[in-house]
Design a protein that fits this description.
By secondary structure, the chain is mostly helical. The chain has 2 helices and no strands. The longest helix is centred in the last third of the chain and has 25 residues.
């Protein structure tokens, strides 16, 4: 599966999740959740590239 399809699918899933949570979660909390998710993805990519061959 091409990498671009993973990015497109992840972006689409994130938009759906964000629009679902928008009505239930306060804006600041939603931003913090998004930031935490970005940090987790960055950490996963870093570990994957440095520790896994």
């Amino acid at each position: 599966m091409p990498l671009s399809l993973l990015f497109i699918g992840g972006g689409f899933a994130g938009m759906l999740l964000g629009s679902t949570l928008r009505s239930r979660v306060h804006g600041n909390t939603l931003q913090r959740l998004f930031a935490a998710a970005m940090w987790l993805v960055a950490l996963w990519m870093l570990v994957r590239n440095l520790l896994l061959p």
